[in-house]
Structure formats: C-alpha cells, structure tokens
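[step 3/7] fold_predict: job queued, chain A
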Amino acid sequence: MSTPIDDDPMDLDFTKIFAPETKVSEPERSPAEEKQIADEAVIGESKLTSNGYFVRLNNSAPKRPPKGQPPSILVVEDDAVTATLIVRILGANGFKATHASNRESILNGLKLSPDLVILDVLMPDANGFDILNRIRQHPVLKDMPVLMLTSLGALDDILKGLKLGVNGYLTKPAKSKALVDAIKTVLA
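[step 4/7] structure written:
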C-alpha cells in the first residue's frame, strides 16, 4: 500500500515521496488509455529509430512559459563523462544545465524547479522510472516536463516511460541534434 502524498502544493520537502522506503504506486489507467499508450509506444519505437528521439503525441504536461532567461535543465546522469558532454551541448545551445548523479543530488536539483529534467534510468542508487513516477505524483512537480535519456530503448521500456507520464524519450548514445530538437519540442 502506498504512503499518502502530502497535498500541500507548497511542500518542497521531498522527504516523504522521494524517500527510497516510501512505496509509490504506479498510476492506474483505463483500458482506452492503456491502448492509446501502447499505440504511442509503437510509434515511439519507430521514431527513435528514424529521428533519434520521440516526443509524445498528446503531451499532457503544460509547457513552461518563457522566463526571459535560458530554460534550466536538470541532467540526471550517473556517468560523469556523458553528463559533462550533455551539459556542454546544452550550454552551447542556450540552455542552463545542472547535473545530478545520485538520489540526493536529484532531490537538490528538483528543489530548484528546473524547466525540464533529462532523466537516465539505470543509476547506482536510483531508478529513473521510479523517480519519474514520484515526480508525477508530487503536487508541485507533477507537471514538470521530463525526457528519458537511457540505453533502454525496447518497446517495453518506452511503454513503461509513457505509462508513467514521460514527455519524450531518447536512447543513448543520443546525437546532439536529436537531444536539442527533443528539448525544444517539449518546451515549445
């Protein structure tokens, strides 16, 4: 059974929902929603092959309004070389990127309310799908755009990300253009 999530929208203390010992159930979907997500996953798998990225057809998370400054992006990646490369690519393309490599730094990065999160799945002390689920169930963060950037690109992986509410999906190694195009599409 899941621990209830604090409904206070000003609660930026993530200790409840992001504590590893707190169980958070995955969202329940109607059969029609399940079918739509399954169809999107098939399209997503094809788009990953042809474009190098996939952004949801029916993106339910609202876009962030421009703030008059570069969009801020939290890059969640445990490999230091990959993270440095992504942060440099983003900086060269006008984004303000910060890096998180473990559960604690992810939470600290989320407290800064980035405009978008780029989220790896396989990390030593966290699972990206679990972090995505917790983001989607947090009252303050639930609408934050999230792109998965992972080596897991099978249909089942894409389907899992879509069921949990991901906005887009890229597989490693992602081309710079695909990464930037996916970000621009989600933030447009």
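[step 5/7] annotate
The helical segments are 15-18, 31-51, 80-92, 103-110, 128-137, 155-163, 176-187.
Residues 1-10 have pLDDT under 50 and may be disordered.
exit 0
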